[in-house]
Amino acid sequence: MWRNLASNLLTVLIVALVAVAGVIGWGQTQYVAQGPLEEPICLQVPRGGSMARVATDLEAQGAVSSATIYRLGAQYSGLSPQLKAGSFLIPAGASMQEIVREITGDGLSTCGTEVVFLVSVNSQSVRLRELNATTQEFEVVAEFDPKVEEERPAPYLEALDDVATRFRLVVAEGATSWQIVEALRSSDLFEGDVDAVPDEGSLAPDGYEFRPGADRLDILTQMARAQTDRLRAAWENRSEDTPVETPEEALVLASIIEKETALGEERPLVASVFANRLKRGIKLQTDPTVIYGVTEGKGVLGRGLRQSELRAETPWNTYVIEGLPPTPIANPGRASIEAALNPAESDYIFFVAKSLDPRDGHNFAATLDEHNQNVAAYRALERANQ
Question: What predicted TM-score, i.e. pTM, was given to this entire model?
């Protein structure tokens, strides 16, 4: 009798284990399978939220078929403790596994409201944007000058108190270190003192995630590290044709290229002009260096150059000095650094703007006669415009 009883119990146990294994297998299949979501949604995860609460929200919004499977899968993967606060775009058909990875990964929040603090060469502004989960495109809600407190719209003030709001600092290529520091000082989104302006060229123009109250010096340190890394990587991959001998010289040349053209496809050609001039011992004769000698990077000149300024003996005036200036004249982006260290092959030693619109690029020339013709065409456009 005992033998029969033991045999029956063993049979029941085996059946139970098989059933459990089947349930686990089914659950795993559900966890990685395509989800039921038909349209993208913007998932809000509050600060201090839990994976269990997220599971309930996802089930309520039709993003997962089972909150229990989602929660258990997140726990089994060990990712539950890594839950991030923010706004996350959940695409249609996302699996439970994909959703867990999205809200626990190192990526930035990808939807909802975004406050962008823009620092350009000529100004700074705050832009409030909202992502349309259906079109997956940001729509500008408001834009204002951060220095004018009266212009701050109500949606912006509301966004400041929303933990799901994403904040980004976006610095344009070609901004000077002084302009960047002054912009950070002008905004109450940041805190902390900056005693000294970082060396020109040492800050990487890019987008940086931050939270209100971020320390200004910490932001600048982050930008400096990024520029150091970019310069090191570009230097290691430099061409034998580069005219510069040190990473510091590369940064100087890159800053001049940055100020001469905003067109990515033109940068290697502009770099080739300067490379050819440096190799032949011809003065660079570039206006942005003259402007920097006048302003030293503190603000915008806002007018044309005078003949006296073109002849003035400043450390940066490449109409007067031989070779490169002693320091960069702006903070160049990655593309300009790479162009300085990998110039295109050409015989060009001259270039002049094609039109009054800088987006039209430049005409390049290998001889003075060709260059004079290009200059005459540009002067004719100037006269016609006047």
Answer: 0.74
